[in-house]
Every structure is written in structure tokens, then in C-alpha cells.
Design brief:
The structure holds two protein chains of two kinds.
Chain A lengths: L30 H18 L4 H18 L9 H22 L20 H19 L3 H12 L4 H8 L3 H27 L5
Helix pairs in contact in A: 1-2, 1-3, 2-3, 5-7, 6-7
Chain B lengths: L6 H4 L4 H9 L8 H64 L10 H5 L19 H12 L5 H23 L4 H14 L6 H14 L3 H14 L4 H14 L1
Classes of the chains: A mainly alpha, B mainly alpha.
Chain lengths: ~200, ~240
Amino acid sequence: MKFWGRSQHSPFVTKSMAVDGAPEPDTVLDVTVLHDEYADFVWRSLQRLGVPTSNLEDALQDVFVVVHRRLDSYDASCKISTWLFGICLRVASSHRRRAYLKHEKATLEFYDAVDEQPRADPEGFALRREAERRLEMTLASMSLEKRAVFVMFEIEGLPAHAIADSLGIPLGTVHSRLHNARLEFTAAIARQDLTCKVGGVP
Amino acid sequence: MTGTQRWLDSGQASPEVLELLKAARAPSALDAATRARSRRRVAALTVVPVAASVTFWFKSVALGAILGSAVTVAIVVPHRSNRSQSSPVQSAFKAAPEHKRPPLAPAASAAPGLTSVVVEPQNPFLPKESSPRTSTTAATVGKVAPPASASLNDDLSREIQLLERARQLLPVDPNRALSTLREHQKEFGNGTLVLERQFLEIEALLRLGQRDAARARAAALKARAPGSLYERRLAQLLGDETE
């Protein structure tokens, strides 16, 4: 998967934004066109990669700044969604590193923006929030690539071939990453349980 | 591998994991307001290069103008200052009558033991700081240095060279010293160091035993440069010779 390689074709007259990513000739590739077509994909991808809700808009902007800067290096041989996901991966990694350096508990913000009235079922609401918190902490301990595959498969319910198509990776790689992600996820849950049993806060 | 099922569908994971996955929310879609806001920002990105290029154009023009002015000043100012400082010297040198010029390097010859001519730093017709200034100017503006001062220096160097050679020949071969002094007379009949040449000629004649001719020349030299250091040097020279 080549994200930063220079294309042999002109980057500004390459392909259209077809749903399946298939290029159509003589269509001007522009960052605003890419935004119109792929903003939602980028937005979802950033969430899958664990970017906190409070940083999502900034991260979205960061992705398209990189797209604008790197547009001439886009390799026409790979799908645009694959290229964009690679950028999302780097931006999310940067945000995660920044949050770590600033000692932020970014993972806890993942679902904070969700408006839910706890009045109807306060106990159920509290349990759900606790489960969300634990889930996000578990996901945050995984590598970004595995996390993305895990979220797309287990939470979003996307089929493996759709994930492979979206991320631009072979189907076998999807299954491999999913397998490893499951192991990591289970191990992380076990670690949290152990921490709780010895009296620590997960 | 196509048979891989979600944990939630197959139920093969632990109840705790299943509980967590049930609580999970799928990523939310991008809402219209955020999308519009983001699009405005992205559209602004495409405008930046144009604005930036205009800014850079103005900057480059301003930078070019400043550099051009600096180079012009660096070339013109030293050239003018050099001309303004060298012209009075040259005009004074040309306008001054030969007998009224200040004596050149009298102290060097008068001082005992100082036989070599150290004329250059004491020459009033050469600006004392002319050498360093010329070299600085040459280093700064290359060929802009005035040629007049250069030729003046060359002539003076040649005069010094001839007189120094004659002075060295005086004790060993006064005839050759005299011929060297005549060579100087041919090249620089009205040269800067004409008084020094005449003084050396008198000394050469004395060493050759032509006392009358030497005395006649000494009288002429005294008349030409009255009150100068040459008068004292001649008195010393002729007095020694008389003794």
C-alpha cells in the first residue's frame, strides 16, 4: 500500500470519486471534492481509531490539510479511501501521542458527547456508561490498525471483505488482524479484571 | 476464513466481553453543521497558495529593491570618497612648484646608519593612508579603484628603486651610481624625488673627486630648496669633505 509515493499520472486529472473507488479519467482531483465525497468516511475512521469526540473536528481538519499538501503524491494505483485511511491512521496516532504527552485521559471522552437522559433508567444508564468507559479503555490499549479492524467488524458489523476493500488490505490480513485484535482485547479485559481485584482503579 | 462470525452473533466470547460489545456504539455520522464548517475550512486551504504567491511576490520585489540599493551604495560611495580624497593630493602635487615641494625622505638619509630609503610612509605627496585605503577599495569594488593613484604609486616605486640602487653603489662604484642617477633623470626629469637625486649626484661627484662640480651642484641645490633639510645635509657632506 503506497500512500506517499509519487504517481506517474497527473494528480490533478486522475479520477472521479466513485463509490467503489474506481477512477474515471479526466476528473479534476481537488481537496474540496474529496471532502464532499469522503468527509463522512474520514469522520468515522477517526472515531474507529479512537480520536476523542472533543478532538474529532480538529482531526478531520488535520486530515484534509494533509490531503491538500500531499495531493500531488497520491498514488493512482491505490484506492482513495485506502489513502485517506492511511492519513487518518497517522493523524490519530499523532493525536494519541499528543494526548499521552499532555497526560490526558482521552479515552474517557469517546462517548461523552452522547446526549442521553439518565432519568428514565438511571441504574441502566450508569451501567452502560461504565461499560462504555471500560470498552474504550480496552480499545485504547490496542494498536491502531487492529483497533480499526476490530471496531469495524465487531462493533459496526461490517463484513470482512468490506473492511478489506475499505482499508485497501487483503482479506487474509483482515482476518489476521481481527484474530490478533481479539486476543489483545481479551487480554486487556483480563488485565482490567485483575487490576480491579487487587483494588486498583482500571 | 469466510466463516468468521462476530462475537455478538456467535456468542463465543465471554459474557463480560459480550456485555461490553453490547454497550458499544458504532461511530456516529458526520452532522451537516460540522460538515459545512469543515468544508469552508478546506475550501480556504485551496485559496492559500494564491494569496501566498502574491505575498511572496511582494516580498521578493521588496527584497530585490533593498539588495539593489545596498549594492549600489556599496559601489558608489567608496568610489566617490576615494576620488574626493585622491584628487586634492594629485592636484596639489601637479600645482606645486618643484622647489616648494616638501623634502622627501631627508631623515632617512640624514640619520646615521639608516642607509635604506624609507620614503613611502614619509612622502607628503602620498596620502599616508592611501595604501590601505586603496587595498580596501580594491577588495570592495574590484576594478573601480582610480588608475591615477595606482600609476603614481608605480612611478614613485620606480624612483625609489633607482635611487636606492644608486645609494648602494655609491661606496663601491660611484661611476655606476652616477649612471644610475642619470637613468633616473632620464625617466623622471621632474620626478617626485628629484632633490634626493641631486643630493646623491653631489655625493657621487665628491667620491669621484670632482669637488668643484660637486660644490656647484650643491649651490644650485641650496638655491632650489632654501631652508630645507638638504641644506643641512649638504653642509654636513661638504664640511666632511672639506675636513
